[in-house]
Specification:
single chain; 140 residues; alpha+beta; 26% helix
Amino acid sequence: MTRHATLGDFQPGDTIPDLQVPAITRRTLAIYAGASGDHHPLHIDSDYAREAGLGDVFAHGMLSAAYLGRLVTNWAGAGRLRTLKMRFTGITHLRDAPHCTGRVSERFEQNGETHLRVEIACANQDGEQKIVGEAVVAIA
């Protein structure tokens, strides 16, 4: 992580503080299913997942997306977030430990505000990417 006194000190090439999440468990999936209302059996029913040709249940894509949202808002604050875009690139399996990272790619002015564009990614403990995207945050 690149250390700076304020958000306004960040420049292209600087990294933001990582977010390391505990490994995904069945309990994680059950709690997320209840909170999100997404009870698709691929995420909570091992027999169903196996019958569908998968080894077991896997995490909801939006759970990993939420971790990326947390990465950005932990760093910049929710009120500074202007856009958040993501693309799913892999499946987060049981026992994967999501690791979220970000790097400032651009500093620009828009609508009277100074913004930072940040490339973000969520990978597992082996470095296999699961989601990539970008966020734009206002700094002034």
